[in-house]
Design brief:
heterodimer; A: mainly alpha; MetI-like fold; 2 domains; 83% helix; globular; B: Rossmann fold; 6-stranded mixed sheet
Chain lengths: 254, 251
């Protein structure tokens, strides 16, 4: 019973909002180019499904590639930072700058560096920058979260620095690293979309491009359909990662 | 250091920045194979003394001599301190693996150590699946697996219920009889100290100094009903009195 209400309540609420939207648009006779009704968006979604699917896959692939690359880079950087106070202090300003700079401001530079022929490189790079900080700080915080009593025990048994790092601090980092990865995955997708929007002149026909293209043509329903597809992949990514995280944590805790 | 002693403190003092004196001046010696209980009020520096014995920190002043080399001292903390991501056997094998013992041999010795503490069959269990008493046994197995010369126990039973505590006390003494390591047992429970130790050192309130020392008569491991015997009661009363005077003493 409780389980079903947990699933049904949000569905009912969304249905209610969509119904309100549909009813108000019809009652006020809102023009489609200004605000299409949910039913018009659904039609556009079905009609453009093949194209949207290809675009969604492109955006997803960009985000996942950036996520994979950044996970390795941020993980290695965090390991290096954890090896000594000096390294961590040296990294901090750059890590913080990466975090606080709006990545949209970096987009023009990345396009220059990637060159007009490789817009995909610029998009992936932007997604990487977007995902870097949460993964780096998650892993770094995790590496510092080892049980102090276990650390004393490792000292007592004369463990070397490497042994402490790989047998104590890395395994201790798992929960916080997963949290950082989850945030990083979401930001990789955001970064991919921002990259696509800023690279709109190129041949990067991801979902963001579909949104822009349809909006430029005042085909607002198609724009919404692409937006819906984007929301769906973001939602699916989140759910999939949450499952992975749950499994991993269950394993870690025993 | 006298013959047979495995550790000794000479006029040892420990100061912590911002907290002032934590321990001392403190003189202490530990003979090979004996069980000594350190009793004192909270904050008297018992745990500090244990860390000095373990070589985990140096004294501020004075001399700490330790005969035990690397890997010959084991510590059991108040909490089991097991790595949650490792199985019981892997936790117990850890000290051996850190010392370079091969995986297979380390696992075999770990399984044997778990058997000795009564945890046969729990090799693959994770710490989260063990009860408090079982986790403490696993922690004890990890401490004993290296066959240490010196075993340091920092209020190991404090978090356990009375039945488990008594059972573990007897099991620990039986294990001691097999390997005969020197044991330093820190507690604030006078009865537990008398039951476990052949010699009880009472500390004053912090900064801890020696308030008195009492030898406990009787065979080890303890026979059934030892807690009800006259020497046990008498020793416990004497210790309580020393402890009371030590707590009143101003630093």
């Amino acid at each position: 019973m409780k389980r079903w209400t947990g699933i049904l309540a949000p569905i009912a609420f969304v249905a209610l909002l969509l119904g309100l939207w549909e009813g108000l648009c019809r009652a006020l006779a809102t023009p489609t180019y200004f605000l299409p009704t949910p039913s018009e968006i659904a039609v556009a979604l079905v009609q453009n499904a093949p194209l949207l699917f290809v675009s969604a896959w492109r955006t997803l692939r960009t985000a996942l590639t950036a996520f994979a690359v950044t996970s390795v880079l941020a993980g290695v950087s965090a390991l290096a930072a954890a090896s000594g106070r000096i390294v961590e202090d040296s990294f901090r300003p750059i890590a913080v700058m990466l975090q606080v700079t709006p990545i949209i401001a970096l987009a023009p530079l990345f396009q220059i560096w990637a060159g007009i022929d490789h817009p995909a490189t610029a998009v992936i790079s932007l997604a990487c920058v977007a995902a870097f900080f949460p993964i780096y700080s998650g892993v770094l915080a995790g590496l510092g979260s080892a049980d102090p009593a276990l650390e004393r025990l490792f000292d007592l048994y004369g463990a070397s620095g490497w042994q402490k790092l790989f047998r104590l601090r890395v395994p201790s980092a798992v929960p916080q690293a997963l949290e950082g990865l989850k945030v990083g995955l979401g930001l990789a997708l955001t970064g991919a979309v921002i990259g696509e929007i800023s690279a709109s002149a190129g041949g990067q026909e991801g979902l963001a491009w579909r949104i822009l293209e349809a909006a430029h043509r005042m085909e607002t329903a198609r724009s919404f359909a692409a937006l819906a597809a984007l929301a769906m992949i973001a939602g699916i990514l989140h759910l999939v990662f949450r499952q992975i995280e749950r499994r991993a944590l269950a394993w870690w805790r025993g | 250091m006298a013959d047979g002693a495995v550790a000794a403190f000479e006029a040892v003092e420990v100061d912590y920045p911002g907290r002032g004196r934590a321990l001392g001046p403190f003189d202490f010696h530990l003979e090979g194979g004996e069980i000594v209980a350190l009793v004192g009020p909270s904050g008297c520096g018992k745990s500090t003394a244990l860390r000095l014995l373990a070589g985990l920190e140096p004294p501020t002043r004075g001399l700490v001599r330790r005969a035990a080399g690397r890997g010959e001292t084991s510590v059991v903390f108040q909490s089991p301190t097991l790595a949650p991501w490792l199985t019981a056997a892997a936790n117990v094998a850890l000290p051996l693996e850190l010392a370079g013992v091969g995986g297979k041999s380390a696992r075999a010795q770990a399984a044997a150590a778990l058997r000795r503490v009564g945890l046969a069959g729990a090799e693959a269990a994770r710490p989260a699946q063990l009860s408090g008493g079982m986790a403490m046994r696993a922690s004890l197995a990890r401490a004993l697996v290296t066959e240490p010369k010196v075993l340091l126990l920092d209020e190991p039973f404090a978090a356990l219920d009375e039945i488990t505590r008594r059972q573990l006390a007897d099991d620990l003494l039986a294990l001691w009889a097999e390997q005969r390591p020197a044991i330093v047992f820190v507690t604030h429970n006078v009865e537990e100290a008398v039951y476990m130790a052949g010699r009880v050192v009472v500390m004053t309130r912090g900064p801890g100094r020696i308030a008195g020392e009492v030898a406990v008569e009787g065979p080890t491991p303890r026979p059934a009903g030892f807690r009800t015997t006259e020497p046990f009661r008498h020793t416990a009363e004497r210790l309580s009195e020393i402890l009371r005077v030590g707590m009143e003493a101003t630093a």
